[in-house]
Amino acid sequence: MNPTILRVALKAPLHELYDYLAPAGGPEPVVGQRVSVPFGRSERIGIIAALATTTPIAPERLKAAKQIIDAVPLLDRPLVELLNWAAAYYQHPPGEVFAAALPVALRKGQEALGASEARWRITDKGNAALDASAIKAPVQKQVLQALQSGEHNSTALAAVHDGWQRAVRELQKKTFVAKFTAELPKVLPPDVPLKTGPQLNADQQQAVDQITPANSKTWLLDGVTGSGKTEVYLRLIEQQLDAGKQTLVVVPEIGLTPQLVSRFRERLAATVVVMHSNLNDTERTQAWLDASDGTAGVIIGTRSAIFTALNQPGLIVIDEEHDASLKQQEGFRYSARDLAVVRGKKLKIPVILGSATPSFETLANATVGRYERLRLPIRAGGASQPEVNLIDLQRYPATDGLTQPMIDAIGRHLGNNGQVLIYLNRRGFAPTLFCSNCCSCVECRRCDARLVVHQQRNLAVCHHCGFESRLPDVCPECSGELLPLGQGTERIETAIKNLFPEETIVRLDRDSTRRKGSIEQHLEIIRGGHARILLGTQMLTKGHDFPNVTLVCVLDADQGLFGTDFRSGERLAQNFIQVSGRAGRADRSGEVWIQTLYPEHPQLQTLLNKGYAGYAEEGLAERQATAWPPYSHLALLRAESSSKDTLYQFLTAARGLADQINPGSVRILGPASAPMERRSGRWRAQILLQAEHRPALQALLTSWRQHLVESSLSRKARWSIDVDPIELF
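Above: the chain sequence. Below: its structure as tokens.
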């Protein structure tokens, strides 16, 4: 009888699984278990991705695994199948794909019995030292005084002083402080009365009635902003909980989770856990384990939550399914939305794709019957759609980004006790520093990009590589005077404060929400009515419900009108509809005022006159005529190198390999420079593949990748394959 071969996924950049013999005398191995294996001179933790009875490796070279870590599989078979499928489809190393499915602590082999965290307590010797005033170092003294009130974890100590780690190390050496590990309690639903939801309208009730466990399809919930999509989610989740099933809800932005979690916990008699990148390793592990063992009835997270192990899966919801944030843009470049559809099919459970502005791909799938489409055409509670007004910037010049009609509208709505939302998708004070003498702009030395002025921090910042420097006093080229040109949210905030000094302003962008918990604090101020002017980037507009906002101001509608990417028009329309939809909810009517240099532009006029549905219909017809997705399928070979010549040598040779393999059904374009040719000091370029049929593209990619891996070419540049890219040019 042939021995059992473990095919193990190890976090490594190679496109293969690693074969090992099962440990002698241990339990029978099962797919999905973690396993400790020898790897070179070290030992690594991997996951059993498959079992076999034969291997191409010579018997004398085949090593035995050291230990099977889990008594029961950490990943169930459908999830393992999804990960194997994703590795093949996205042409990515399987070990890195499997690693993406686990929190860091579990990747390192932590026992899956419950999350724990490091804590510190003061010792008798430490108390005595404090009593004797023997502690002279001020930070050490602060830490010891804090620990006298009880044990602290890293988060609590960080609140005491930024330099707590060094202080604790010194205190441990003196045995004034002891470190220990504490198991974290499970998150349980609060024991409070639950709120009752509003009565559903006919369209909402129809959606709830049709999306049943028996209808394990992919559903497009196409509802205008404010139509009550979240209420439909809640009713369906209640049904799943009553049946003992779990629901996974994926949202595109961390900023959407606080409001959603709060609303779900008020309504659902279940443990609701959260998974996103702002959690520390301990919190993420605990949430993952609560989902895995069935403690959590509802799991809310950003895109990586799609890999969460579920004990009793019943429903998957992808909220704002059109959002580009659902596509991972580095490393393992997966789409959480598309993987949700695949996972739902494997689990035979319903998947809901919700949006007021569905992506063109999703609309096309609904049109041909792959997805079932349900519409919510009216706003919940009978609220009316906002009135939209265009301001011609050629007729009304802006000062500090604001025209007089816009200022008048803001004053009028504030006078009527409404909240005002001001949208500009550009952070910082100004997008460029311009020299009035030589007419040059201050640029990043490592990227083909201009440095952005951040006046409050007195910095010039590259938003691409993160380079920062103090704001120069004079032009580095000619010593001429430098002027900040253009507007960012920071500059608009200053202008608004000068115009309405008595009003409190909340600015929501990446700069103002760097600290943990800051998003929740800002949103609480907004919803509590303590601020009546809301200013921000897309972070402020995505999916939030601000019932008191009666005016939305779009300061620059022209950012997406002339984009070169074939998706730029679709994104413009989605942003336009999403931000406009924040105005007017419940019994308060809303207005939208939009500043533009091109009020007669066909795209703006189509949106105003036909809405998103009419715009999408015209856009899909244009895509079909030009054979762009969803009427073709794309992949990019992205490459970068510190040498431009080396980069193009690699890509030219790679293009030659692709031409040899190509059966003729795949169109190959390039090599061509990336939209930003130089970033972080490295040159970047790409080759585009386009095919009418997905299998032809996948066949070429699989063979091409293998040839590239085996070729010495692969060492000339850093490269990756991006299947179904969302940004091209």
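The chain has a mean pLDDT of 91.
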